[in-house]
Amino acid sequence: MSLEKTFIPYGGYWSTPFARWQGSLSEYHSIRLAGEVGREFLASREITADSFDGVVLGITVTQSHSFYASPWFAAMVGAPDITGPTISQACATSVRSLASAALEIEAGTRECILAAACDRTSNGPHIYYPSPAGPGGQGRSEDPVLGNMNLDPYAGLAMTQTAENLAAEAGIGKEEQDSITLMRFGQYQDALADDRAFQRRYMVPVELRRGTKSVGVLDADEGIHPTTAEGLERLRPVLEDGTVTYGSQTHPADGNAGIIVCNQENATRLARNRDVTVQVLSYGEARTEKGFMPKAVVPAARQALERAGIDAAQCAAIKTHNPFAAADIYFSREMRVAPEDINNFGSPLIWGHPQAPTGMRAIIELIEELVIRGGGCGLFSGCAGGDSAMSMVLRVS
């Protein structure tokens, strides 16, 4: 279905910097941190908590007390009288959270929803499942982060293998993957130009503390790997006889992001600039064949575009969450768009992947790029576990 009543106030969103695995945010409770950042963001924009009649929180890596995630987050941002769902859909969590909020706006059951997403892939839980019937009464254990990256229980293989399956089928070699990775790194440098002018349009700093003591500020992405053609050429594939290296795939990270989703009246009232209108036109979802996760971004994108009544050629900007360079290449080929016309100012391939908030940051960057371009339609598409993907189409005017 197309969406007609769902808007995002221009400037009604934030993203923290994304911090490298086991880096500056590795010991912060992701829900608590999202609550603190969200509260500070709303205060900085002079948006009062009574503006919201609903909340959505996306999270994929469980934290202590995450049973209470969404209402707890609402209380921390200063809105203890509202509630809403806690959503987890692997790397599609951001789009699913925004779609959930949008459907409530379309139905008229809510008028203004704060949607946020947070994750800490660092120091994730180690889960033990008791099993008295096991050998010697022993249970089994699981690492929810690394374990899920390394095994899709339905496909029976790791996510890296799904990228290799795609690369083999589509004839995408290591050299081509290295080339697109280098291009994406160059695009990210544009976001750092003029003292990070592009990122400062939406990125908020995080005060770093040890107990009650302030020990610094994280005000820029942490853990970006310096990338050169020579460095990429030297890297060996992760899998034997493969093509994907650690240089041509994303890296785990920590962070959070948030977007206000509302009707047009609230979007106008809460916008940083009322001359800019951001409308959500549609979303799409798809699943591809077993063991080919990165392919799913294409049918998901096509569904969202069809629902919006446009095609890829009519998009002024496109963002993707393709965690493997091979997937970026495949998307460009299938959607018939030039690789250099996608992911301006960077992408999760470069700035990292904290899972739940990844797509939300990409959508925020999509909005800001559209504003710079003077408006137009934009597409985000990102893959997720289980050979699936979700997409969203926006229009900025």
Short structural summary:
The protein has 397 residues and is an alpha+beta fold. It is built from twelve helices and 15 strands. Strands 2, 3, 4, 5, 6 and 11 form a six-stranded mixed β-sheet that branches. The chain has a five-stranded mixed β-sheet with strand order 1-12-15-14-13.
Helix/strand-derived class? alpha+beta
Q: Count of DSSP helices? A: 12
Tell me how many strands there are. 15
Uncertain regions spanning at least 5 consecutive residues: none
- Gap from first CA to last CA: 21 Å
Radius of gyration, whole Å: 20 Å
Examine the coordinates and then state which fold CATH places here, giving the name of the CATH topology of the domain at 159-197 and 279-396: Peroxisomal Thiolase, Chain A, domain 1
Beta content: 15-25%
CATH architecture designation of the domain at 159-197 and 279-396: 3-Layer(aba) Sandwich
Full CATH superfamily name of the domain at 159-197 and 279-396: Thiolase/Chalcone synthase
Q: Can you give the mean pLDDT? A: 96
Biggest sheet statistics: 6 strands, mixed
Task: Please state the overall shape, judged from the principal axes of the Cα atoms.
Answer: globular
Order of helices and strands: EEEHEHEHEEEHHHEEHEHEHEHHHEE
